[in-house]
Task: inverse folding
């Protein structure tokens, strides 16, 4: 298990890193970059460059570099691997520089743009400032602060993928990761479980998880509902190792239904209108009858009523009204002549009278 270094003061002179300057062909794109699509761990540098160009529209960044050159105040963060320097922070900047240097490496539909940017360059960048670290673990606190809790945050799925790398490659525990990146233990665990859920559903259960990855924040929030967790057989209170594959195989059908209901498929819309309806979905999943109705109708509101959800909502509204009237009682003494108060009270009285018509037993007891 990885150990954290003990708390200490400012770095010693030996630990302070000087900015170095490297040629472009001495630098490598990072195949472990959380921004990349899954399955690119063995991709070539050309494939990594094309993927970044396609997914991140680097032309604006390229135009800035072509006009202004590279700012020495923002060195790339690197580790020495395989005789070259792998850039673990700054891959978009490096990719833009590579495309300015070789526009033909861009995807076919972007090549003319990059040729024009390269031809119009006012500044030619031949060397790039870097900071060199001995290994990736040394860079972890910085990346965590910058991209998970800091100002240049990755997308939710990318954050979770990075946390998974820390768990599975660096063997950190959830509390250790929380301390390193300045987050909370439950938040780190939720990111990891949501990520491993998606991975297991895709790899072992043949479920299309692409829409869930796009709405990854909704997936994370869904894990807070114990009824949803019970339906898919998910238990949170397990070790990091156990949570690498958090879903029991016997619940594959339930997992598939959950992903389809919550996120939809290429052919069907989800039954959730938005994430605020997760509680409704949880209530339905807790009722076998309501689940059957949802399967046949794909109508979440109707299934929610079948689950007893409408009665719970009525009770919540009545309890809230009772509480608010209790709070209004001592204030009403001082506003007996207020026209607005009288209008509001009349509306409350009329509404209550209509409700009581449906409850003759309550009316007779008055």
Result:
């Amino acid at each position: 298990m990885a150990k954290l270094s003990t708390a200490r003061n400012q770095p010693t002179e030996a630990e302070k890193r000087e900015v170095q300057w490297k040629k472009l062909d001495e630098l490598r794109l990072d195949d472990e970059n959380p921004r990349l699509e899954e399955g690119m761990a063995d991709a070539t540098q050309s494939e990594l460059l094309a993927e970044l160009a396609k997914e991140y529209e680097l032309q604006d960044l390229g135009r800035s570099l072509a006009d202004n050159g590279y700012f020495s105040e923002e060195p790339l963060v690197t580790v020495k691997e395989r005789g070259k320097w792998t850039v673990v922070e700054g891959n978009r900047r490096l990719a833009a520089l590579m495309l300015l240097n070789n526009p033909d490496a861009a995807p076919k539909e972007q090549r003319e743009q990059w040729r024009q940017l390269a031809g119009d360059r006012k500044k030619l960048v031949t060397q790039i400032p870097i900071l060199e670290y001995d290994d990736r673990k040394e860079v972890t606190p910085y990346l965590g602060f910058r991209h998970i809790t800091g100002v240049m945050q990755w997308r939710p799925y990318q954050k979770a993928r990075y946390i998974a790398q820390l768990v599975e490659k660096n063997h950190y525990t959830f509390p250790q990761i929380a301390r390193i990146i300045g987050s909370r233990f439950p938040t780190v665990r939720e990111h990891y479980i949501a990520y491993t859920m998606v991975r297991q559903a895709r790899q072992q259960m043949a479920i299309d998880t692409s829409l869930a990855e796009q709405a990854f924040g909704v997936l994370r929030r869904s894990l807070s509902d114990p009824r949803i967790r019970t339906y898919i057989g998910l238990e949170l209170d397990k070790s990091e190792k156990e949570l690498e594959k958090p879903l029991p195989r016997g619940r594959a059908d339930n997992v598939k239904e959950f992903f389809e209901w919550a996120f939809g498929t290429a052919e069907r819309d989800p039954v959730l209108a938005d994430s605020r309806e997760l509680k409704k979905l949880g209530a339905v999943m807790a009722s076998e009858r309501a689940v059957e109705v949802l399967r046949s109708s794909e109508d979440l509101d109707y299934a929610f009523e079948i689950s007893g959800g409408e009665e719970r909502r009525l009770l919540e509204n009545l309890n809230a009204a009772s509480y608010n009237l209790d709070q209004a009682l001592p204030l009403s003494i001082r506003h007996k002549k207020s026209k607005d108060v009288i209008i509001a009270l009349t509306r409350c009285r009329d509404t209550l009278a209509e409700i009581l018509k449906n409850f003759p037993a309550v009316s007779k007891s008055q």
